[in-house]
Amino acid sequence: QVQLVESGGGLVQPGGSLRLSCASSRSISSIDINTMGWYRQAPGKERELVAQITRGGNTNYADSVKGRFTISKDNAKNSVDLQMNSLKPDDTAVYYCNFGLWSANYWGRGTQVTVSS
């Protein structure tokens, strides 16, 4: 019923920036969304939480991205963005969008981010 679609991934040089966006294909009342977040998974590693924003606007970040990444949301658009600055090769991964609702948990299909010279 609900599809999350990510965009903005790609290839960037170390030190560069990318902005990821995620939006729902169908409207969801903001009151039903507890959290919006971004996760990533690199080859051979477990999926990890990168950044999360709650209904009230509180944010959480992985220690590895604090000071470099910023998560934001637009309730009217049912969207969540991740601004990624000062990118490092270790940031290379597939990034997944997540909406955590009271009644369900939804995931995007993922977008590849590659940081390389």
**Quaternary structure classification:** single chain
- Beta content: over 45%
- Secondary-structure-derived class: mainly beta
C-alpha Rg (nearest Å): 14 Å
Q: Could you give a short account of the major beta sheet?
A: 7 strands, mixed
Morphology: globular
Total strand segments: 11
Order of H and E elements: EEEEEEEEEEE
Helix amount, in percent? under 10%
Termini, distance in Å?
Answer: 40 Å
What does this molecule look like?
- The chain has 117 residues and is mainly beta.
- The chain is 0% helix and 53% strand.
- The protein contains no helices and eleven strands.
- The protein has strands at 4-7, 10-12, 18-24, 33-41, 48-54, 59-61, 69-74, 79-84, 93-101, 105-107, 111-115.
Any chance you could write out the topology, listing elements then pairs?
Blueprint: E1 4-7, E2 10-12, E3 18-24, E4 33-41, E5 48-54, E6 59-61, E7 69-74, E8 79-84, E9 93-101, E10 105-107, E11 111-115
Parallel strand pairs: 2-11
Antiparallel strand pairs: 1-3, 3-8, 4-5, 4-9, 5-6, 7-8, 9-10, 9-11
Keyword list:
single chain, 117 residues, mainly beta, 4-stranded antiparallel β-sheet, 11 strands, 53% strand, globular
